[in-house]
Amino acid sequence: MYTSPLQFCTRPCDDLQWADPASLNLLKVILSNTGGAHLLLIDAARDQEVDEGYPLSFALSDIRSAGATVSELPLATRST
Fold first, then answer.
1. 10 has pLDDT over 80
2. Which contacts of 57-64 are long-range, i.e. CB under 8 A and separated by 24 or more positions?
3. Residue 77, domain member (yes or no)
4. Which pLDDT score is estimated for 22?
5. Coil, strand or helix: which one is 53?
6. In this structure, is residue 78 part of a structural domain?
7. Strand pairing partners for 13?
8. What digits encode the pLDDT tens for the residues 16-68?
9. DSSP assigned state of 54
10. CA 53 → CA 15, 29, 33, 61, distances in Å?
């Protein structure tokens, strides 16, 4: 994949709180081995459904440990 600081790859993901272990492992591999590629993954997960013992929490911890930057932006709950 050809990327540069001004030309990067963006991939949105939604509902990662329900991702299966194989999908989370794929994300870990991709985000831990970018090879200098400029990759932006925008993921959405319902934090009220994810606690410290949830597979997504472990995956994010592994991704951080591999040196990838993981930023979280909590959003307010929507009222109807």
1. no
2. 58/24, 59/19, 59/24, 59/25, 59/27, 59/28, 62/28, 62/32, 63/27, 63/28, 63/31, 63/32
3. no
4. 93
5. coil
6. no
7. 43
8. 888 889 988 988 888 877 666 677 777 777 766 666 677 888 888 898 898 88
9. S
10. 17, 21, 25, 11
- E strands, 1-80, are 9-13, 39-43
73 inside domain? no
Which of 2-6, 39-43, 68-72 has the largest mean confidence?
68-72
Tokens of 35: 């090879």
Place of tokens 């009220």: 48
State how many domains the chain has.
1
What is the spatial distance between Cα 18 and Cα 50, in angstroms, rounded to a whole number? 9
Residue in this structure with the two tokens 């790859």, named with its chain if needed: 9
Q: Which residue range forms the structural domain that includes residue 52?
A: 9-65
Between residues 34 and 1, which one has the greater pLDDT?
34
Q: Is position 75 within any domain?
A: no
